[in-house]
Amino acid sequence: MKVQNSERLHIGIFGQTNSGKSSLLNYMTGTDTAIVSNIAGTTTDPIRKAMEITDFGPVLFIDTAGVNDKTSLGQARIAKSRQVIDKCDVFIYCLSLDDDMQILNELKKKEKPIIYVASKQDLPVGSEISDKYKDLAPLKIDIRNKDDRLKIFARIKSLEKKDEPTITKNLVKKGDLVVLVIPQDKAAPKGRLIKPQVMTIRELIDKKATAICCDLTSLENTLSSLNKKPDLVICDSQVFKETSEIIEEGTSLTSFSILFSAFKGDLPYFIKSVKRLDMPLKRVLIAEACTHPPIDEDIGTVKIPRMLKKKYPDLEIEFARGDSLIDYDRYDLIISCGACMFNRTTMLSKVEKAKEKSIAMTNYGITIAYLKGILDKVVLPD
């Protein structure tokens, strides 16, 4: 399975205009991904390029617009660059002689690794840059030398690599039998499974567990054909209640959405926040990471709003798609999808902003289980 961008280490390239960011991106990836020129403001929207670093793994480089862009669209470009900050696991900062360090101070507040680069070592100004910022121990990069990129890759590899989170966490161990209930409705893409399902199945294989897939209509028959009770049943959130009524009492049950709430986000905060549904609500935001057009019986635009309106007839419900900016102060509660299209850093940044504003935030699966009165019967990953 091809590694999706959301599962790659995100590395943002920042600096002033004409500091060599786009040249560095092209140099590291061996491509002409970014347009390069001496004209300030050449890079407009962030440019992304995925690659695999040998003996490390998949990464996503993000080239950003210069943060001192004085062109007519400069402020819009800078705003886009600032949005990238919340997505990054690592920062590369390209130094320049006239650097005001403003954006660098913002990067430092994130407490993420910063790799300083004194590029342009192929020009006379290169040595001036490296001398001026010698206290930062910048990597000296000469794009004429193809091996200089190895310095950056080595620095990336040297960064402390934390244990990678797993989807099923403590809920599945070697030898377990897991049944996955995957409804094939209008929302299901023809001929393929959606990303959370594929990723979960792959992880079960890696854990040397047995994965058996079925839809809701064949669940009863599937269970009766087994010679033992499943150690875990994972279902789509839309069929939570129906699945709970079919499986044997005492069988561990969870959903793809709940698993991803822990894999991508902050499960304890989501569980705490869902209780906001017991209080008066004026306005709720439903945030969907995907940008697919909504269809009949769509979980985010139809099913959850229907459930909410049943409890709160006068509730105002607004929607956000993709990586739209959120005005957190507008809402009493934010309900997010499983965020499989975001990297974990992006989702945690959104949760952190909600916490700072004291805004409750939860996700689809937790909301559905709570409104259907079965959240206390669902197993949660540690």
Number of domains: 3
Characterize the biggest β-sheet. Answer: 6 strands, mixed
Shape: globular
The CATH homologous superfamily of the largest domain is called: P-loop containing nucleotide triphosphate hydrolases
Strand order of the largest sheet: 2-3-1-4-5-6
Per DSSP E runs of 2 or more residues, the count of β-strands stands at 14
CATH C-level class of the largest domain: Alpha Beta
Low-confidence regions: none
Class by SSE composition: alpha/beta
CATH topology of the largest domain: Rossmann fold
Q: Classify the beta-strand content into a percent band.
A: 15-25%
Q: What distance lies between the first and last C-alpha atoms, to the nearest angstrom?
A: 27 Å
Helix content: 25-40%
Please state the CA-atom Rg, rounded to the nearest Å: 24 Å
* Gross CATH architecture of the largest domain: 3-Layer(aba) Sandwich
Number of helices, counting only DSSP H or I runs of 4 residues or more:
13
Order of helices and strands: EHEEHEHEHEHEHEHEHEHHEHEEHEH
What is the residue-mean pLDDT, rounded to a whole number? Answer: 89
Fill in the keyword field for this structure:
382 residues; Rossmann fold; 3 domains; 13 helices; 14 strands; globular; P-loop_NTPase; GTP-bd; Hydrogenase maturation GTPase HydF; Small_GTP-bd; nucleotide-binding
